[in-house]
Amino acid sequence: MIQISDLTFSWPGQPLATLHISNLYIAKGEKLFLHGPSGSGKSTLLGLLAGIQTAQQGSITILGQDLGQLSDAKRDKFRADHIGTIFQNFNLLPYLSPVENVILGCNFSNRRAANLNSANNSANQQAVTLLEELGIDELCRNRSVGELSIGQQQRVAAARAFIGQPELIIADEPTSALDADNRDVFIKQLFEQADHYQATVLFVSHDSSLADLFDRKVSLQEINGACR
Amino acid sequence: MNLMTLAFKSILNRKASVLLTLFTIAISVMLLLSIERVRQEAKQSFSSTISGTDLIVGARTGDIQLLLSSVFRIGHANNGLSWQSYQYIKEQRGVAWTIPISLGDSHKGFSVLGSDENYFQYYRYGKKQSLTFTRGRAYHNAQEVVIGSEVAKQLHYHVGQQIVVAHGMGNTSFHHHDDNPLTIVGVLEPTGTPVDKTLHVPLKAIELMHGPAHTTGTRIINSNKHEHEHEHEHEHEHSKDLSALESEPGDLIGHPKTLTAFLMGFESPLYTLQVRRNINTYKPEALSAIMPGVTLRELWGMLDIVEKILLLFSVVVVLISFLGMLTTLLSSLSQRRRELAILRSVGARPRHIFSLMCSEAVLITVLGSLIGVAMFYLLMFIGQGILQAQFGIAISLSLLSYYELMLLGVIMVAGAVIGTIPAIRAYFYSLNDGMSIKL
């Protein structure tokens, strides 16, 4: 699914590398917990995986595609087609309805839009189904995004990540704004959806207490050779 | 949902600041359109005040002064020209017609113009249109008056009514001639020229106003006869039958000594320059002859600078409104970096972000312009009456002209161009920030 080899990245104008990973492999369907406290190069790695930045050396291969070989526009398209993202907080556009937020990505990805349409169901309906599965009922769907609780917002964001069946879900500290109960429910639902869509999950957090829930745990501090 | 709807919803989310921007643009568009429309209509009604007249002749004075006093009833001709000179020039070779004009009297603030039957036959305005009557007919004798449409409208005068015309300008003249009433026999169609605000009487009526002692006898007889007629009309319950106004054709000219000016038409334009030279070198009296078209252009040329300044101001107002839009878009941009990052994370490319920002500017400009056009029509609708009454400028509520549409087009293009400034910034933000949310 993901193969990182001899990756080196440094921000422009900085003499020292921010990130150096000699090898990281993530299998298809795997749920990986990446433990990364702040300063461990977490954001940089996510940026590289999403194809926002490109590495100076080494390669990142996702789904057999070497990201370094793609142009900027192709990498953006690749991200839109194959990667769903969930952020720590403030994930949603406040001026769109929950359903509109969910199908937002389909504007930028023909593949995900096509996946939706092939399912014999309108995009809206699939978004509704997905929200329903994540416990966002009709009452919540008719509210504006700002009126939803943080937990509900995070589930809408999860629905947006899953819609159109991307192969890889990147979750960047998605639970740090949630309380313990909500957190466990959220992760449970995340896994259910991932299993349903056979998606690979890369879950990044500084909270190592969650690590036991996952198939595998990797500490970024340990694999990042540039980290001191 | 395409980028345009996304932009629209994003704008709706920032109603307050966007509404203000929208209104500054709307107001500037309204101002620009209004100024341009009034300017064009003023120019139009200005240059269509008189047409078909080859020469205007008056006592020696400045060209523009002569035009202003004889055609626009603005200012006073200091002295007149003698009746003898008029008679002499009239007989020149190639002269097709002449219209004598005697000004200087007024009735309730409207000027009184003394002339003869040629006035209704040969006077032309606009595109060589002749004067036509809404009601009634031309005057047949010295006790009759024909009024312009504005006079009828503002003073609520109608055909058959008797009025008293005073000597002198202004409506506070104390020297009233109550013993010299005139009967309204005709109301002219609106022309959008000073004719609308003029009372037309025969030259002889002017003479009667000024020298009552001279013609007392006839006047009393005539006015008695008129009062009789008037009563007669009353018996018929104000019947609108104009035959009640039948009168015997009488002398229209009398024995005037001077005229303010006279208008001339020639059989062929070739005579114009010849006769003009003759008049300008006419020995017995110092006279001026002007070609109205040329002098109108000269006069408008003098107003050119005012016109340009007005245009400049409205362009500056449009510029300021665009700067306002730029400020709003730029200041909202830093708050919206999160929004941009979210869009990037779901796969928006930097060029999507760029076109999203551009569409916002375009949407604001287009909406602002539309509101501005609506406000412009509202303003014109309200201002129409005032402009007509105060300045005699007839504003038509017609569709936008090609020129006005072009102005709008320039505004929209300018809006889009200015929109690229925040869009370029957003583009670089989204390149650098990527998906990381920086607040």
UniProtKB/TrEMBL annotation, chain A:
Keyword field: ATP-binding, Nucleotide-binding, Transport
Gene3D superfamilies for the chain: P-loop containing nucleotide triphosphate hydrolases
A Pfam family hit: ABC_tran
Superkingdom of this protein's organism: Bacteria
PROSITE patterns: ABC_TRANSPORTER_2
Gene Ontology molecular-function annotations: ATP binding; ATP hydrolysis activity; transmembrane transporter activity
Residues forming coiled coils: none
GO CC annotations on file: plasma membrane
InterPro entries (alphabetical): AAA+_ATPase (IPR003593), ABC_transporter-like_ATP-bd (IPR003439), ABC_transpr_LolD-like (IPR015854), MacB-like_ATP-bd (IPR017911), P-loop_NTPase (IPR027417)
Domain ABC transporter: 2-226
Protein name: ABC transporter domain-containing protein
Source species taxonomy: Bacteria, Pseudomonadati, Pseudomonadota, Gammaproteobacteria, Alteromonadales
Automatic annotation (TrEMBL), chain B:
Subcellular location: Cell membrane
A GO cellular-component term linked to this record: plasma membrane
Claim: Cell membrane is one of the keywords in the record: yes
Chief location: membrane
Chain ranges of the ABC3 transporter permease C-terminal domain: 312-427
InterPro entries given in the database record: ABC-4/HrtB_transporter (IPR051125), ABC3_permease_C (IPR003838), MacB_PCD (IPR025857)
PANTHER family: ABC TRANSPORTER PERMEASE, ABC TRANSPORTER, MEMBRANE PROTEIN
Transmembrane segments: 309-333, 354-382, 402-428
Protein's name according to its UniProt entry: Peptide ABC transporter permease
Keywords of this entry: Cell membrane, Membrane, Transmembrane, Transmembrane helix
Record domain MacB-like periplasmic core: where: 19-206
Coiled-coil residue windows: none
Entry annotated with the keyword Transmembrane helix: yes
Residue ranges, annotated region (Disordered): 226-247
Membrane topology: Multi-pass membrane protein
Leader sequence residues: none
Biased composition (Basic and acidic residues): 226-243
